[in-house]
Amino acid sequence: MSARGSGTAIRLADCSKTFPNGTRALERITLEMRGGETVVFLGPSGCGKTTLLRVIAGLESPDPGGRVFFDDEDVTVLPIERRNVGMVFQSYALFPNMNVEENIAYGLKIHGAPQAQRAKRVDEMLQMMQIGELRERRITQLSGGQRQRVALARAIAVQPRVLLLDEPLTALDALLRERLRIEIDVLLHSLGITAAYVTHDQGEAMAIGDRVAVVDRGAIVQVGTPREIYYKPANAFVADFIGTMNRVRGTVRDGFLELPGGRIPWIQCGEGTVEVLFRPNDARIMPPGEAALRGEVVQQFFLGDRTRLHVAGVADRMVVVETTEHREFKVAERIGLLIEPDTLLRLKD
Ligand code: ATP
C-alpha cells in the first residue's frame, strides 16, 4: 500500500552554487518536492546533479540568497547531521572492516539507540531487503547487488526524513539494475519517504520517478511526469536527451503538412515552412497503398521487443520508426506510415 504524501516536503528556492574556482554548478534552482514523492534528477555528466543532491543533504551550501526548506523549516544552514537524511551512492560507501549487520546498525549507534532497539531495527532491515542470510558476511564477500541492498538498509534504518540516491545502480549489470530498480521503487513508495534520485540513465529516470527534473548546465529545464517529459518536451535539449526524436521540416498549405513522402492533416497554427518532431513509436506502419505517407526501409534493427527501422523518402531526412510487428522487413521495402496529427510536436525555441 502506498504511503505517499506522509513524507517531508522539500523546497529549493533560488539555489545557485558557485565553487571557489569559479565553476557555476547550479543556476537558480527553484523546485518543490511533495512529501513522499520520488523526483529523479536527470542530465548529462557534469550538469550539476550531484551538487544539487549535496545542497539538499547539507554537504554544500547554496550561494547567498538560496534557501532549502524541509516542510516549513528553513534548513539552509543546518549541517547534514542535523537534517536527518539518508544517502546511497554508486560506490556503496560501506565500511569494509564491519560485517553486514554492523554496517546497518552504524547510524543507529551514532544516534545513540539502545542495543535492544538496534537489534530489532537491524532484523527488520535484513528482512525488508531480503538479506537475512548475509547478516554476518563481510562487505568484501558480497556481490555488487548485495552491497547496494546493504547500503539501502543502512540508509533507511535510521528512518530518515529524506532519502538521497546518487546513481545507486550504475555499477551493476543490466539485469540486476532492472531488478533493484523495481525493488527500490516499491520500497520508496511503501515507506512513503521523499526521495531525490540522481541518474544519467533516462530509462531508469522514467521507471522510478513520480516526476523527472531534467538538468542542463546547472539549470532545471523541465519538471514533469515521465509521460510529460517524453511526449511534451519543453525544448530541444529535453527532446533530444530523452529517447529518440525525429525532427523533420515540411510545408503547411491548405490544412495539410506536406512532406516529400506525402501529406498529413495539420491541426495546429502556422503556415509555410515548419519543423515538427515525433517519436519513433508514434508512426504506425501500414501497407503503402493505404497510407498518406510513404517511404523505403533503409535498415532494420531487431531489438527483441520491437524492431527499429530507418526509413528514407518520408521526410527531408531519414526518420526512425519502431514497430512491435514480429515480421522481418526487407531493405528497400516500400512501407506506408500513419502519424496522428496530434502527436506532432512543435518546439518553441
Ligand atoms: P556526473 O554525472 O558526471 O557525476 P553531475 O551532473 O553530478 O556529473 P556535478 O558533480 O554536480 O555534476 O558537477 C557539476 C559541475 O561542478 C562540474 O563542472 C564539476 O566539474 C563542478 N564541480 C563539482 N564539484 C566541484 C568542486 N568541489 N569544486 C569545483 N568544481 C566542482
Query: Number of helical segments?
Result: 8
How much of the sequence is in beta strands? 25-35%
Major sheet description: 6 strands, mixed
Please give the alpha-carbon distance between the first and last residues: 42 Å
Q: What is the average per-residue confidence, as pLDDT, rounded to a whole number?
A: 92
The strands making up the biggest β-sheet line up spatially as 6-7-8-3-9-10
What does this structure look like?
By secondary structure, the chain is of the alpha+beta class. The strands form four sheets. It has a six-stranded mixed β-sheet, sandwiched between helices. It is elongated. Helix content is 24%, strand content 32%.
Provide a quick synopsis of the model.
Helices cover 24% and strands 32% of the residues. It has 349 residues and is an alpha+beta fold. It is elongated.
Any key phrases for this structure?
alpha+beta; 349 residues; single chain; binds adenosine-5'-triphosphate; five-stranded antiparallel sheet; six-stranded mixed sheet
